[in-house]
Amino acid sequence: MSIQRVTVLPLLIFCLGFPLVISAGQPALKNKAIAEIDTSLKKAKRTCGTDQACLNKAADLEQGLSDFKDRRFTSAVELNKGKEKLIDAANSLKPIPQAGGNENTEGMTSEGEPRQGDPLIAEVRAALKAAKEAVADLPTDSPQLGQRLKNLERKESAFESDINKSSDPSKLTGDANAIKEEAGKIKDEADAISSPFWLSFFFTLTGLIWSGLLLIGVSVLVFAVLTFVKLQRRVSQLEIQRQNLQQSNDRLKSVVADLKTYSESVGGRLTKAESEIGVELEELRQLYHHNVRNARIVQASSASRDVLSNATSQPLAEVEPSFPALASDYLSKTPNNKKKELESDFRTNLLIPAPGGPFTLVEDDDGGGMGIVLPKPRLQKSAEFSSYYKSYYFCDSPSAGEVYIIEPAIVNKSGAGWQLHKMGILETR
């Protein structure tokens, strides 16, 4: 349930419940008001006697009572105002005295004046009648109220018998007030049973205020309970999420621990492999130098034999340059017409003619397009090897010094340049 629905629910309870309670209590209050108006009208008609004008006004009030019964009141205040208006009009009805009359009617003196106790009798009778009607309207019989009402009727009869005998007005008034007070108590108790006090109180201004506050309090309580339930549900969901996250965290810790162990194992194996590769490289380097030295010895022996043989057969012939040899020696013995300066074109990966280039091409005499390329006779610094020659020559430890060619780099003719065919080997001295 969302917060908006929880907030609107108490307001709906208040808006729907308040009119229902009011509409439920209006019939009881209206019936009570009708009974009071009817009692006042009957009393007024008895007061009118045979006075036709007074009776006509009473008939108009009866029509007003009929309209009152059919009218639908919007509030208890409006209902009470209508009731009070009709009761005041009924109590104001009085007969018009007849001039020159000397009839000694019931309840009148020989001079045509009402007897001294008649108003008290009328008030007592009206109070007793109201009490009787209230008891009669009870949904269930009340033996206690019935017995009290019978006792009150006996007191009322005794009061009417004694009113003509007693000449003490204060005593008569006290007796009448006692009867009316007891009748009022019986009526109030009967009304309380028919229409509970809380319902009557509800329609007073104070009752309306307190009832509104009560409904607001109930609405707030309902809102608080629903909010608490929602919060509890949310707390439970968060607790489940926390437990899931804790489990995920534990699994991640386990995976990290496994990865750490694996990385340590891999690191150990890599260290071992690196050590083994270093040993093998050292062995290969030593083997390489050993082979180079052997090749030099073999080539030197072969060259010596050739020189001796040529010297014996042709002592005046020119000796052809060969390798291993210093680059400067080889180039000094090569005719200029067989030499050509080149540089590397990094876009085509070819060696192209360039005066003053770092390479010197010596072409074969057979015209097949093959030849050898030699570096400059001397390196000024080790960086020159990395900049120009590392793609064409192997060198164990390049440095500044004379360039000694063990095997020359061989190239083939390719378009406008020459392409590497075989890398050479050199040393610096």
Task: Describe what you observe in this structure.
The chain has 10 helices and 11 strands. It is α+β, with helices and mostly antiparallel strands and 429 residues long. Among the domains are: 3-94 and 117-212, no CATH class; 325-428, no CATH class. The protein has a 6-stranded antiparallel sheet with strand order 3-2-4-5-9-10, with no helix packed on it. Strands 1, 6, 7, 8 and 11 form a 5-stranded mixed sheet that branches. A hairpin with a 4-residue loop joins strand 2 (339-345) and strand 3. Helix 1 packs antiparallel against helix 4 and helix 2 (52-70) runs antiparallel to helix 3. The chain starts with a helix and ends with a strand. The model is unreliable at 98-114 (pLDDT under 50).
Radius of gyration: 68 Å
What is the number of helical segments per DSSP (H or I, 4+ residues)? 10
- The end-to-end span amounts to 91 Å
Helix content class: 55-70%
β-strand percent reads 5-15%
Number of strands: 11
Say what oligomer this is. Answer: single chain
SSE order, one letter for each helix or strand: HHHHHHHHEHEEEEEHEEEEE
Shape: rod-shaped
Average pLDDT: 80
What is the makeup of the main sheet?
6 strands, antiparallel
Low-confidence stretches: 98-114
**Which structural class matches the secondary elements?**
alpha+beta
List keywords for this structure.
rod-shaped, 12% strand, alpha+beta, 429 residues, 10 helices
